[in-house]
Amino acid sequence: MTPPDRPTTLPCGTELDELTVQVVERRSPRDPEHQAGCPFCRPALAELRALWSPLHALAEEEVMAPAGLVERVLGQIQELDYTGGRAIIATTDGETAIGVRVVAVIARRAADSVNGALLVMSRASTGVEVGAVGRSIVVQLDLIAALGMHLPTLSAQIQRAVREHVTALTGLTVLAVDVSVVEVTEGIAGS
Amino acid sequence: MALGLPGGWNGAMPSEQLQADDSVLVRWAQEGHSEAFEHLLRRHRVPVYRTALRLTGDAHVAEDVAQDAFIAAWQSLQLFRADSSFATWLYRIVVNRARNSYRGTRDIPVDDVPLEGFHPGADAEAIAREGSQRVMSAIVGLPFEQRTALVLRLFEELTYDEIAQIMSITPDAVRGRLHRARNQLAKSLGGER
């Protein structure tokens, strides 16, 4: 025999579905005074809270992203985006090719380390594009700076740091470091 | 001798809490700056992975879904038109990838048919507490569209309008799916008490 359907409305007139949504979504009651004193709502609410408490416990569990997720995604993106642009250093022993992306990373890391540079985007291109050949490089940086910094001074510090470190680590000739300050902000929160 | 970078740089990226909003980072990422996308990735990795985990119930599948979703986002970033928030757009991709993970690997119907007999994978079982595991099994047993509405509402705390955007349905349809999801979940949870 099929059991009778459960009533959808309590004897006090309150819809069970309304109480269910209230409990499941942890909303405030529409009529708190009634619920606090109602002999039908109170046990119904107690039963619903017990039923749904495991769901709430699951919702409160902290979930951490897997270690290495970001790095794996970035690795795949780099493979997808690799364009093959590179600078060449020729010696009597042979040639060394350095991808412009490598130069861009070195430049960005160097610029990041300058106090007042909050976020740096870097691009590099081989000197061929500006009329030089082989081992010359041009670096372009977009920058979010800390509000209150003297921007020409900050830019000069970044240009010096980038030029020094790209030259030291790659042996390439840095023709230019172009800095574009695209935004200023209060700083870094929560760190 | 190894040459160091200035200022004691230790290989860490600048804080992921940088106060540049998503729209600025998206604009830069659309211009080809993968560094900007890296910030978006770090900022959204937890909700993306958590959504994938709650939709699939399997840590390994969720990791693949999250990874695929971010790569798909990068590849289609030029199509993002800011008529929704970046987060909403990203949720939509995650949901689609999670749906495809069922279609691709299990050949299980994903809409309006409960996934009977499916249980979370071994990793999820290992890390979940018993109560959570029971709930997770019940959630994964819901039809995919009901499960999506429930996960986005209860775990991600999105509004009905946001869920409607993500699922390409009306807010009333979201209410309907949540209603059915609650009813089925109540049966699953109540039946085991």
How would you describe the shape of chain B?
globular
Considering DSSP H and I runs of 4 or more, what fraction of the residues of chain B is helical? Answer: 55-70%
Q: Report the C-alpha radius of gyration of chain B, rounded.
A: 19 Å
**Mean pLDDT value of chain A:** 81
Q: What would your notes on this structure say?
A:
The complex is a heterodimer of chains A (191) and B (193). With 191 residues, chain A is an alpha+beta fold. In chain A, 42% of the residues lie in helices and 24% in strands. Chain A is built from six helices and five strands. In chain A, α6 (151-170) links the parallel β4 (136-146) and β5 (173-185). The termini of chain A are far apart. Chain B contains nine helices and no strands. Chains A and B meet through α1, α3, α4, α5 and β3 of A and α2, α3, α6, α7 and α9 of B.
Keywords:
heterodimer, A: 191 residues, alpha+beta, 3-stranded mixed sheet, 6 helices, elongated, B: 193 residues, mainly alpha, globular
How would you concisely characterize the structure shown here?
Chain A contains six helices and five strands, in the order H-H-H-H-E-E-H-E-E-H-E.
Topology:
The complex is a heterodimer of chains A (191) and B (193).
Chain A: H1 16-24, H2 32-37, H3 41-60, H4 69-81, E1 86-91, E2 94-99, H5 100-112, E3 117-126, E4 136-146, H6 151-170, E5 173-185
Parallel strand pairs in A: 4-5
Antiparallel strand pairs in A: 1-2, 3-4
Helix pairs in contact in A: 1-3, 5-6
Chain B: H1 22-30, H2 34-56, H3 59-75, H4 86-105, H5 122-127, H6 130-140, H7 144-155, H8 160-167, H9 171-191
